Amino acid sequence: MTGASLHRPLPLADVPHWDLVCDVAVVGFGAAGACAALAARENGAAVMLFERNAGSGGASGLSGGEIYVGGGSPVQKAAGFDDDVADFAAYLKAAGGPCVDVAKCDLYAREAVAHFAWLQAQGVPYRGNYLPGKHIEPTDDSTLIWSGSEAAAPYVDQARPAPRGHVVQHMGWGGGRTLMDRLDARVRAVGVDVRCNARVVSLVADGVAIVGLVVRMDNQLFHVRAMGGVVLASGGFVMNEDMRRRYCPDTFRINDPIGDKDDGAGILMGMGAGGDAIHMEQFFTTCPWTIPESHAQGVFVNVAGQRFINEDCYHGRVSRAAVDQPGGRVYLLLDNARFQQPPDFARMSIAGTGDSWEEVEAELGMATGTLSATMAVYNRHAAEGRDPLFDKRPPMLVPLDQGPFVALELNFQTSYFSFFTLGGLATNTDGVVLDRGGAPVRGLYAAGRCTSGLPAWGHGYASGLSLADCTFFGRQAGAAAARHMTGHG
């Protein structure tokens, strides 16, 4: 069995016998794997789901439980927001930036409302109310929030803005566990054969087609025949430092990875089977500076005293642009009217104060006439209700002219910049893994953070895109694998 490896499939000829047989094998019991298993069962497949941990969850279980849904959901309509499919699709494509998958954006935009209804049918609860304001997550069990840059430039001019973050009903932060508990219960109720403490160590290939898995359970290797195919749903690679150094080295500027086992195993298996890995340099990051909301009325500058973003956009977009700045830190500038003590977990410190921006500039050790000039230009235009440099909009666009003034330091190495990877296997809208020529890898499917999906570009991320991507395209992959088993895929 020396041939069993994440990096190359075990040849069928080296399989001594099949220990287990199913129609569809799913690797990973996060939201992507759960939804893939449910969709495969809905299409008549006998499903086995393998999870290396003792139970379900993965990165989905650690999340806020927020799913990005637009195009006119019942919750949006009840709150008075007329969001249509065209605007939703336009926003998804803009947020995908240079990494956008147009076909996935168009398909999800058309199907998102039906997908939301499907989640509810699986038992995922939603209160159904709208929470106005700027939030990372609701602190109560509210549903609908603004969770991206919909109302900020440049997106506000490309698609009519609407709130699209749909948060599972859960008191406080961390609703991902509630989401996973409901999906877990449903997966078991429909008869999926769930095997936990089961680590997949290799795919099995018959020539170029994937036909099964090698799984370690109870310290033994089991050979699993998957008649319709294998769905990889094992997460990204944020916990694999070797992969990060090779593919996503900018993440070493920050120090708080978010993930479970996310070691890239599914990506490596897919690559070993001939799949293409794309946009591997992309990552999401945030330092939660939007608590309190008034801090979005502040101004961000780099160590040279220069602005670099319109501060009214999504907190992850601001943080991702911040990490691109030189010098290892950025500063959030506030006046006395806007300053509130940041939460302790943000690990943001006061780096400079003064009765004028010139005094703050001096305390920060910046060259004379840098930060002070930035703030003079900003305040002059903000008083006129415009921002010609970055197009920040009211009500977040206000002059910072009520001293004393303060500069909060966001240090890339010591402040809380959480992050996870976005790159992964190339797949089509059915979740089929594609090779470097764009051809399908037969019998192999993938979903979630081991693929490059809707949240493909770190600078355009919105909260809820990952769970939207993994739940919807998990369903697509599971259904496609089931159809392949019956010869209809």
3D architecture notes:
The strands form 5 sheets. Strands 1, 2, 3, 8, 9, 10, 11, 21 and 22 form a 9-stranded mixed sheet that branches. Strands 4-7-6-5 form a 4-stranded mixed sheet. It has 12 helices and 22 strands. It is an alpha/beta fold and 489 residues long. It has helices at 31-42, 58-61, 74-78, 85-96, 102-121, 176-189, 241-247, 265-272, 315-323, 357-363, 371-383, 465-486, and strands at 10-11, 20-27, 47-51, 66-68, 130-134, 144-146, 165-167, 193-196, 198-206, 209-217, 220-232, 256-257, 277-278, 283-286, 299-301, 329-335, 349-354, 405-411, 418-421, 424-425, 432-434, 440-446. It starts with 9 loop residues before the first strand and ends with a helix. A hairpin with a 5-residue loop joins strand 21 and strand 22. Helix content is 27%, strand content 23%. The mean pLDDT is 96.
